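Good morning C.,

I know you're traveling, so I'll keep this short. The sequence:
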Amino acid sequence: MVNINESLRRNIAVANRLALILSFLSFAYLGILIANFGISVTTPIIFGVGGLFLGTIFLNNRGYYHIGRLLISTVPALITMYAAIIAKLDDPSFTDILYYDARFVLLLLGIVPCLVFDIKEYWFLFSSLLTILCCLLLFDPIHEMLNVGYFQRGFLGRSYYYINYVSAIAFVGIAAGAVTLKAFIEKYEAVNALFKKDLMEKNSNLTEALKNIETQNEEIVSQSEELLASQEKLMEANIIIAQQNADLEAKVKQTGSELYISNEELIKRNSELSQFSYTISHNLRGPIARLLGLVNVATFNANIMQDRDAMKIVEHIRTSATDLDNVIKDLTVIVDTRNSIIQNMQLLSLHEEWVHVKNLLDISPDFERNHFQVNFSAAPQIISVKPLLNSIIYNLVSNSIKYKAYDRELSVSIRTFQNANFWMLQVEDNGLGLDMGLHQRDLFKMYKRFHKNLDGKGLGLYLMKLHVELLNGFIEVNSEVNVGTVFTVYFKKGDNTTEAQL
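The tokens, ready to paste straight into the viewer:
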């Protein structure tokens, strides 16, 4: 048997075991019948029923499990009805007991379909139950049609039909109870299967976590051993250094207090790192400017102009000095931004900022009308710092224009949203796009460029992220190559007091 689920596999196993039990009971009943009444016309029929049950096992094992289970659920009831009628037609001297024994067998067989079929196999299940019920209900009409009915043979028990009704009701009750029990069992099996699956996933995750822990422990042990070896080497080196520097001990003691003071000063200076960076970025501009000036002077020197090697060296110096000047300019922008104190918060109109950005980028009315869809209605004003907001919008729009696709018209959508905590500015374009799986980690790093064939320093996105974070916001990016990019900038809303003051 292949491609069958666990529930069907179980039902087939139950059918096989049940067939084996019923086969044994059939042969046992045959032996009791022969011992008490001798061989009769029903003897081969009962023997055939026993063989039929064994045939069910054969069919199930061969893969014909639908036929096998349907056989064990319906055919025994039909054969029981047939055997009861044949026995009465063959021997007119039978007793009234033969009108009851077949019903007991039919009641017993009513359990079989519920054991070998699932509720979802309702066609097989209920057709089998209906077949057995029909045998019970039609037991007397068929006997009377063949002139072997209970009263036709002269039996006078007036409660006979009452017992028949009880048999039918008992069958319905037994079948309904068995079906209900089957439904509950399947329901809880489904729940248990989900629980088992979840438990197996958790066990798998736990096993993986334990493996990771074991791996980490092994790495820690390895690192600890390496650290211990390094410590031993360091101790040996310290001993050697102590021996070599024994004559300098007095000097070390003398300079110890000075070193302590220097260390305290270093801690103090470390807290002023921002001011130090600012000073470096601005004070370096002067020497670079003078260097560029000297290069310009040198290029007009007649002797140097006639010397190609000298001119090449001068040009290399000019290029290096220009590059260094650009780096210092970038550093100045970053330092100025980091050192700025967000104390100029004001209520800003996004439409006015958009007009300012259009002027900076030289976007004409026709160009705007053909390539831009702008809608600030959801959040027409936000509280922010004007230069920072202007820089953010400028970088977003300029990138959309710079990295437009080559094979389609530029289309840029600019709109706003808001919720209880943030104003949201979204800029969506249909440009070249980015491979987020490849570039996501480097997207906002300084001097990172992702389209080598286009000009740019790779500083715009870095500055934009820096400005947004200074405003206590964040940026979400969704991009796909040759489809486009969506930037969503979240601006943190202030408390009610701050907004009321503004």
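Safe travels,
E.
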